[in-house]
Design a protein that fits this description.
Elements: E1 4-7, E2 21-25, H1 29-35, E3 39-44, E4 52-64, E5 71-76, E6 82-88, E7 113-115, H2 118-128, H3 159-165, H4 167-181, E8 203-206, E9 221-224, H5 226-233, E10 237-239, E11 245-247, H6 254-260, H7 279-288
Parallel strand pairs: 1-3
Antiparallel strand pairs: 1-7, 2-5, 3-4, 4-5, 4-6, 8-9, 10-11
């Protein structure tokens, strides 16, 4: 097994389904095969809107493309996906590439699948998952579990695997990212409540739940107040394909709904399209959780 970087793009002609599979020409079959069972980091260029290394995920297996024998699919472990708290640029502050030996132009810089060393992988992960101290990202109480120093030596060893699989770390990282994306405001009520320390009281809700192998990514999250989070998890409220709020019949009195939700009954979403809820996750919630 080996760590790798997979280059992805929102404008790609390949048949990728982010979080589920990665479509690639068979010229990369050898490198992809070596990454099966291991973790890979996703990278996107400026044309794709992210500009940097932005997520990590585990590869499960390779499947041939039944419609094109020159291509294959790397099938991804959906539950393992974790988005970064910050996009990591190709080059460090001192000008060195995060991928050792990567040229600025040409050569393997143009490859869509690149194998990387354990130390390069650890350095990108440490920077991407370094917790953000801005108020919107802070936990409601207590100290955050995170990587305060991207160069810390322990993260280059066995602790790296523990961090990537730790439910406690993943939950806190996910919550920080969702609270920051929604600026600490509930996406259904519009309320922005802060405690005495200036920390947002809003909670981060998984749309596709963890128990259903939902990923820890901003696009699988909503910032919700505690009461609305409870209602969302139990299917009393959901979101339509056009971001209209849905309320289960007979579940909430009209006068209560009038106080709980925004007047236009539409989901408040981040201004950045890359942070908005993924339609597939919202569809799952409507189909499997909503009691409409």
């Amino acid at each position: 097994m080996a760590k790798a970087v997979y280059v992805a793009s929102s404008h790609s002609a390949y048949k990728d389904r982010p979080g589920e599979w990665y479509h690639f020409p068979n010229m990369y079959l050898g490198n992809v095969a070596r990454s099966v069972g291991d973790w890979v980091i996703f990278y996107q260029g400026r044309r794709g809107g992210v500009a940097g290394y932005y997520a990590v995920q585990r590869v499960e297996r390779i499947v041939s493309d039944p419609s094109d024998d020159t291509h294959s699919y790397a099938m991804l472990d959906r539950a393992s996906e974790l988005s970064f708290e910050r996009a990591v640029p190709r080059f460090r502050s001192d000008g060195r590439p995060y991928e050792t030996g990567l040229p600025r132009m040409g050569g393997n810089n143009t490859w869509s699948v690149r194998l990387i060393s354990e130390s390069d992988f650890a350095a990108i992960i440490a920077e991407g998952l370094r917790s953000d101290p801005v108020p919107d990202a802070l936990p409601r109480e207590g100290a955050p579990i995170g990587l305060s120093d991207p160069g810390q030596e322990p993260f280059l060893g066995p602790d790296r695997q523990m961090i990537l699989t730790s439910r406690a770390f993943r939950d806190q990282s996910f919550a920080r990212q969702v609270r920051r994306a929604y600026a600490g405001r509930c996406a259904m009520s519009g309320l922005e409540l802060r405690n005495g320390g200036g920390r947002p009281e809003v909670e981060a809700a998984h749309i596709l739940p963890v128990e259903e192998r939902g990923p820890d990514t901003v696009r699988n999250g909503l910032a919700l107040s505690g009461t609305i989070h409870w209602m969302f998890d139990r299917g009393l409220v959901s979101v339509d394909a056009d971001n209209a709020l849905l309320i289960a019949r007979g579940s909430i009195a009209a006068e209560v709904a009038g106080r709980l939700f925004v007047p236009d009954r539409r989901l408040i979403v981040p201004s950045d399209p890359s942070l908005r809820p993924h339609p597939a996750y919202l569809d799952w919630h409507r189909q499997h959780r909503f009691k409409g």
